[in-house]
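Mods, move this if it's the wrong board.
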Amino acid sequence: MVMTEVLDKLKALQDILAQKNSVEDSIQNAPKLLSTQEELLSRLKKGYIEKNEQYESVRAHIADLKIQLLDAEAAREKSEKAMDTITTQREYEALDKEIRDAGEREQQIRKDLQKEEHAFQELDENLKHEESLITQQEEELTERKTALAADIDSMTAELDSLTKAEEEVSPGINPETKFKLERIIKSKQGVGIVAIHGNVCTGCHMILPAQFANEVRSGDKIVYCPYCSRILYYVENPGIENEYFNEEDAGSLSDLDDFIEEEDDEDDGEDEEESDDKMDYDE
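Not the wrong board. Structure tokens:
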């Protein structure tokens, strides 16, 4: 197969793989869209349970206070009736104290009862509001789950279609080249094949060594950018008649290595000079 045809297939495959990755990510992340609402609903239900326990506790306390109030009223009325039967001042004073104590206890119980009934009413209203809110959230969550399931079905169908398209375009592409392209596309945001302008990779904008630029222009084989690992292809520039590069002008990977080694040697030399200066100063 002519290299031009291979590159055309790789470009078509790149589009398909990029779409597949996007759809797969959407399917994988789809359930996360519901997690926030599910967490909110869980907190609402937990709060409702706690308030309902408090509600039942207040109701039980109110029932107990009502019994205490009846007992206090009965004690006061009994003491008041006993007033008709007393014969001495001492009995009168003792009975009068019982009536006053029973009356004070009765009044205190009434105050406590009113306070608890007020709290009970507020809890009742809050519980009804939260019940309504929980019902609303459950309905919305159910609707979203239904819609999400439909979206996932649609995306799954789209993924199946893309997989078939991938199978159709893959014949004639070297499996190793396809494997590398898949990895590049995942790591390079869907772009695994880029053109060169002059001797510059448009993917990473690095100046390519001359041999790479010339190999890409010749179109004899698949060439990968030595910097970003993308597959490179040549686009003819009408303004330039001959775009072959001289290695002496454009440089090479070996030149890059030599430059790095020279920089390291210079740094080492500077470090040695600084060390010697420091020793002289110490002396």
